[in-house]
């Protein structure tokens, strides 16, 4: 018993001394010296090891590391086979269950006869500024990375074939299963990761816009995704810009949702007023992942369009120091040379208010005008809401739609009120007649005001 006690106390005092020595060394010996000894020991062990370990961190500076993202998706499919603990999840829009490796857990894999061992590591981020020169990294509370070990002699095969294979597999897995994610900005000025499942109900099947326009947009998107070789051959950055403009309620946000589902790209909803300055904006844009859509809604409202630095005007937007020239520089410059398969969408209700710099050819590749409801959009809406594609009132409605400006949102609002479709379309006709009369009355009032002002001007001239 006394022996047991003395062993215990020896262990306790050894542990205490170790902690003391560790805290003294941490306190008094510079990091660089500790690192030097640590790395010396490490190098010695490494020399005799036949294994090679590759570390794949989640972030590479401010951008998310694509190899990490690929490993995450790929290992999900392997986790069920060899991990001890497996994370299972499925969001509403996911087609299948997804699995993931839990923190600290290991997964085995084999590639062309080479055995590999993966581990998912998470640790608290150190807050020491000496360790994190990058502002963004120091804001993260957790550092996450994968380590993968394999026999050194196969390093050529692993780097040359296995990792590219993991990237390709991950791309296919994401396409097959993943739901579109919506990323918004967090308080710290970076994207919330992993983002929430995007569940807007609109797709190209249900979007009610002119049928010809819809075809054009879908073809353009299809050409874009298949354009890898084209962009490479022509030396152009693999990105595309769309400007959606038109009155409120004509389907700009709906079209963005349809685009995201069609391509299975994540959406990054960039609220320009949430970024403190151009630098933060740059970090946000650079840290988006590939195969994504950057959306800046109501561009004319969220940024002072005339605060271009080259005009020598103020560069502030209220308290916000994001500038249009800053935004354009990031998109044209840095954004073009890193990342691929990226789409940017600006929306506005007032195209005429936009700075010409934004409209310059090559900046926004396609300008899409979403306008008031025409008959082809109306047909789509009645089919969506009531499953009908023919009705005796269609002809009359077609005529009315040529005379009255009514948005798809208004028509949708009326259609949703109808319970008996066959009878209910009468209400749509009434609704449009009322709008037509209101329009005529507003026009008469407007003419009266103008006549009155003209009369006053004339009598002033006489005096
Ligand atoms: N083209 C459309 N096809 C089908 N539904 C539409 C269309 N346009 C509008 N709607 C209906 O009206 C609602 C509002 O439309 P949406 O938000 O897409 O318009 P918006 O042009 O983005 O408007 P805002 O400029 O105010 O943001 C949608 O949720 C949808 O129900």
Automatic annotation (TrEMBL):
It holds the Pfam family AAA_assoc. GO terms for molecular function: ATP binding; hydrolase activity. It catalyses: ATP + H2O = ADP + phosphate + H(+). Signal peptide: none annotated. One of its GO terms (biological process) is response to stress. CDD domains: RecA-like_BCS1. InterPro entries: AAA+_ATPase, AAA_N_dom, At3g28540-like_C, ATPase_AAA_core, ATPase_AAA_CS, Mitochondrial_chaperone_BCS1, P-loop_NTPase. Residues 238-374 form the AAA+ ATPase domain. The keyword ATP-binding applies. Its cofactor is Mg(2+). Keywords: ATP-binding, Hydrolase, Magnesium, Nucleotide-binding. It comes from the Eukaryota. Belongs to the AAA ATPase family. BCS1 subfamily. This is AAA+ ATPase domain-containing protein. It comes from Flemingia macrophylla.
């Amino acid at each position: 018993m006394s022996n047991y006690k003395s062993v215990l106390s020896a262990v306790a005092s050894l542990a205490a001394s170790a902690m003391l020595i560790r805290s003294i060394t941490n306190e008094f010996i510079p990091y660089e010296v500790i690192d030097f000894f640590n790395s010396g020991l490490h190098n010695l062990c490494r020399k005799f090891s036949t294994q090679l370990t590759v570390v794949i961190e989640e972030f590479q500076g401010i951008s998310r590391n694509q190899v990490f993202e690929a490993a995450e998706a790929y290992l999900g499919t392997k986790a069920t086979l060899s991990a001890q603990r497996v994370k299972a999840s499925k969001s509403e829009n996911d087609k299948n269950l997804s699995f993931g490796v839990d923190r600290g857990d290991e997964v085995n894999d084999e590639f062309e006869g080479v055995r590999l061992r993966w581990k998912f590591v998470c640790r608290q981020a150190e807050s020491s500024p000496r360790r994190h020169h990058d502002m963004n990294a120091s804001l993260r509370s957790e550092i996450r990375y994968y380590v993968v070990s394999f026999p050194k002699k196969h390093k050529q095969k692993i780097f040359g074939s296995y990792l590219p294979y993991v990237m390709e597999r991950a791309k296919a897995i994401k396409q097959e299963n993943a739901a579109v994610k919506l990323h918004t900005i967090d308080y710290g000025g970076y994207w919330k990761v992993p983002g929430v499942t995007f569940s807007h109900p609109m797709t190209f099947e249900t979007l009610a816009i002119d049928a010809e326009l819809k075809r054009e947009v879908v073809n353009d998107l299809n050409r874009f995704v298949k354009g890898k070789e084209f962009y490479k051959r022509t030396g152009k950055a693999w990105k595309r810009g769309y400007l959606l403009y038109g009155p409120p309620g004509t389907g700009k946000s709906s079209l963005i949702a349809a685009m995201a589902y069609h391509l299975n790209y994540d959406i990054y909803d960039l609220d320009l007023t949430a970024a403190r300055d151009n630098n933060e904006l740059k970090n946000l844009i650079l840290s988006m992942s590939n195969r994504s859509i950057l959306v800046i809604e109501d561009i004319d409202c969220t940024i002072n369009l005339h605060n271009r630095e080259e005009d020598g005007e103020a560069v502030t937007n209220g308290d916000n120091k994001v500038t249009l020239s800053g935004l354009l520089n990031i998109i044209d410059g840095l954004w073009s040379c890193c990342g691929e398969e990226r789409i940017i969408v600006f929306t506005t209700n007032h195209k005429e208010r936009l700075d010409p710099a934004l409209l310059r050819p090559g900046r926004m590749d396609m300008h899409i005008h979403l306008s008031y409801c025409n008959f082809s959009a109306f047909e789509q809406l009645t089919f969506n809401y009531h499953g009908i594609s023919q009705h005796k009132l269609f002809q009359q409605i077609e005529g009315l739609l040529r005379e009255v400006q009514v948005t798809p949102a208004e028509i949708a609002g009326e259609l949703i009120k109808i319970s008996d479709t066959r009878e209910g379309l009468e209400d749509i006709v009434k609704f449009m007649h009322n709008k037509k009369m209101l329009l005529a009355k507003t026009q008469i009032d407007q003419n009266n005001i103008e006549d009155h002002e003209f009369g006053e001007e004339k009598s002033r001239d006489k005096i």
